[in-house]
Amino acid sequence: MQHKITSFEQYQETYKKSVEHPEQFWDEIAHTFSWKKKWDTTLDWNFKEPSVKWFINGKLNITENCLDRHLEKNAQKPAIIWESNDINEPNRILTYQELHDEVCRFSNVLQNNGIEKGDRVCIYMPMIPELTIAVLACARVGAIHSVVFAGFSSKSLSDRINDATCKLLVTADGLYRGNKTVALKEICDEALQTTSSIEKVIVYKRTNEAINMQIGRDVWWHSEMQKATPHFDAVEVDSEDALFILYTSGSTGKPKGVVHTTAGYMVFTYYTFLNVFQYESDDVFWCTADVGWITGHSYIIYGPLLNGATSVMFEGIPTFPDAGRFWAVIDKLSVSKFYTAPTAIRSLMASGLEFVYPYKLDTLKVIGSVGEPINEEAWYWYHEHIGKQKCPIVDTWWQTETGGILISPIAGVTPTKPTFATLPLPGVQPILVDSGGYEVSGNNVEGFLCMKFPWPSILRTTYGDHERCRLTYFSTYENLYFTGDGCRRDEDGYYRIIGRVDDVMNISGHRLGTAEVENAINEHPNVVESAVVAYPHDIKGQGIYAFVIVDKQSIEKGIVDTDPDTGDAEADSLRLLNITAFKNEIRDIVSKIISPIAKPDKIQIVSGLPKTRSGKIMRRILRKVAENDISNLGDTTTLLDPSIVDEIVKNAQ
Ligand code: PRX
Fold first, then answer.
1. Burial track 360-384 (b if 16+ CB lie within 10 A, e otherwise)
2. pLDDT tens-digit map of 411-453
């Protein structure tokens, strides 16, 4: 752990060195790892194309660094402790040796099923150790994993499979989530009707429900594993070979496949895990995210395993069987470092302290937050009731595209300030710019958050569409990576992320594009047009507010959001029923096309949308209505039909 920063002075020195001599800085860290062949040039980059390459011509396999490297000293150390959805089901513990052997076995299974270096493998799994095994086995054979969050619909799954032309799908019969089960294989079967690239499906048995197995295509995980040996020589890949694709929403309709490559991602997730959480060898680290998101990739799997840490993997949800589940598990497993999302903190805070008090939580040393701005109230509650005022809170800011944490306190080293992500980690060079792209310098300022120098795990491309990557991240401001976030730098030079400045929403820490949700709503046969905005939501951070124009037929049926009190009670209640049914249909459609997480919280039927003469929707006005801040709607004179605003305001939800 020679790269661990242990004092603020050391942070300042290290930071300075990392900015003055970035190549030398990362070079030294990269030497920690096992390489099949060392790199010959550390970095080559330009943000114009963009093209970023780290550790050029290095040859390696990341799983040798996650697994094999630890076997000599730590073969019997737990790598994964798995906590079931069912609180009474015993924990499963996989030591480094066991995880290594299982990964090797599954690598053989992948190979036996036709997977070769460079092939794309889609993984749509419950939060069980086999998900981690599948991910690492892909990396071991040199295949590119594309994990799709198991809460996504069959349509989202097939879109992602098609975009990356995945050859193989790893899934399970079903999954448990609180008191529900989800028939995963059924969803896969539906998705596979509109995909042609998948040749094999490997199915893990989790819920034991009867499922359809298509002969020749579908095989069982357990029978394939029985045939496989626990030895597999890790395939040599290049530093810049893709390790994985992870889809994320942007401001246009279609999610894009963010591509991360091998060596840079490895070096950066290793380094950030070690420092931000101040990893110690006896830690029990628990990140509550799902592996379907970047947080799970980087801080359940890769970051911890690269450090030889013990990582907890949780199948369930924070409120099952009750709102004390997180705290019960922390006590049961003696968790020392805990990493979760503000939305979970807010929802558990709302459940009341009676769910916290039964637990000691005295093993905790560091607690973290990720995915969205943490509000002051939640920060203090977390600090006082979970951290017992002794655990530093690391409010970590980063993105799917950044691969790892960029701005965050180093636990116990960086003095924290509620709601501030504080300072950039070594090697990270933030810059704030105004709308003209000019640097906003000095302190006590606000601007758009950009990065002016590449760190090792910056995204390399968006799968199959490099131009989209350039346009989205590298063309707004010349020679800068644009994050899409607004940010404040205070008098101490501390960074506070304000939120997205584009059409990306953050619902319970999940990223969704407004256009993506609108496209789904527009699939309803009676919807003519829709516009979606986010509004502040007590628990979810942001909620979704949809404004929907319906067709003539629906208006005739009374599907309009106006005062129902016409004096005819029967007609009014029938109309209300119709409206409720219609809104539920919209929610169902969004669930089916994207995921239940994308369901609009509020739906307002409108007769028109506030559009400029050139046809652009003025979302600013809709946002104000959704935020219930109608006192100052700003200039509406450029609208094609300003009267529409009055109607929208009058019937706001
Ligand atoms: O707006 C920022 C917000 O989440 C966005 C990235 O979302 P995603 O790619 O899904 O990754 C989430 C997990 C890393 C960012 O552009 N965000 C993330 N962390 C924070 C945050 N906003 C404020 N504070 C944070 N700590």
1. ebeebbbbbbbbbbbbeebbebbbe
2. 999 999 999 999 999 999 999 999 999 999 999 999 999 999 9
CA–CA distance, 122 with 487 (Å, rounded to integer): 35
**Pairing mode, strands 495-500 and 481-489:** antiparallel
CA atoms lying within 13 Å on the CB side of residue 329: 32
Contact 320, 329 (CB under 8 A): no
* Residue 290 alpha carbon to ligand 1 centre in Å: 15
**Dist. CA 263–CA 60, nearest whole Å:** 8
- Cα–Cα distances (Å) from 58 to 29, 38, 233, 271, in that order, read 14, 5, 18, 18
So what's the pLDDT on residue 267?
98
d(CA 629, CA 401): 33
Query: Rounded distance, CA 189 to CA 257, Å?
Result: 22
Query: Which conformational region is residue 124 in: left (phi greater than 0), alpha (psi within -120 to 50 degrees), or beta?
Result: beta
The CATH number for 504-650, chosen from 3.30.300.30, 2.40.50.870, 2.60.40.1090, 2.160.10.10, is 3.30.300.30
- Name the residue ranges covered by the structural domains of the chain: 504-650
365: nearest Cα among 480, 284, 308: 284
Q: How many residues does the chain have?
A: 653
Band the pLDDT of 556: cuts 50, 70, 90: confident
User: SS3 helix, strand, coil % of the chain, rounded to 5?
Assistant: 35, 25, 40
Report pLDDT digits (tens) over 13-69. 999 999 999 999 999 999 999 999 999 999 999 999 999 999 999 999 999 999 999
| Closest ligand 1 atom to Cα of 401 | 9
The three-class DSSP label of residue 175 is strand
Contact present, 396 and 414 (Cβ < 8 Å): no
- In this structure, the residues whose C-beta lies within 6 A of any atom of ligand 1 are 248, 294-295, 370-373, 395-400, 421, 483-485, 497, 499-500, 506, 511
Both tokens assigned to 392: 């530093």
Q: Yes or no: say if 446 and 431 are a contact pair by the CB < 8 Å rule.
A: no
Strands (E) across 291-444 are located at 310-314, 337-340, 366-370, 393-396, 430-433
> Cα(484)–Cα(503) distance, rounded to whole angstroms?
9
* CA 43–ligand 1 middle distance (angstroms): 27
**Residue closest by Cα to atom 7 of ligand 1:** 399
Please give the Cα distance from 323 to 350 (Å, whole number).
10
- Joined tokens for residue 479: 């020679």
Q: What does pTM read for this prediction?
A: 0.95
Give the torsion sign (CA, 397, 398, 399, 400): negative
Determine the pLDDT at residue 426.
98
